[in-house]
Fold:
Amino acid sequence: MKEPAPYRFTVDYDQSIEGKLALKQTDRIGWATEIATDKRFFDPRRGRHLVTARLVRFDEPVHPHRIEAWCEENGKVLAQPKDLIDLRQAYPSPALDDEMPIVALGRLWVDPELHSIGGALHLYRDANGTGLHSTWLCPSATFGTNWRFLVLDREAAGQ
Structure:
């Protein structure tokens, strides 16, 4: 796989997910799922950091474990929801529109009632604009070839 083009932007890890989504700008993120909260997607990182991110796409359906292995082999880390939201803030529409859906698999939320099913957040574009949706992952889940996975360069991610 060819190294995807870099996207450089600043992520404010001190701002809550709810605060990031409060503006509801239609050229960025016009609406979001109610599960997009700091309580469900806790991020221990603090401060403002300039990151280099990439959108990785696989040519065949892929399981999340394969994406993790690819990151390990290539010096990348899986992005988390705050990275995903700030990517869209830095690159409003029409930038990235043709790249969606874009998912952040670095932090999953496990529904206490469903136990083995986790949720990830992803950006999705339709006729109404860009929204932040949840994607539910059962143990056998795979992503099709239309998905992009947001990853951070390990050095930029402070890892």
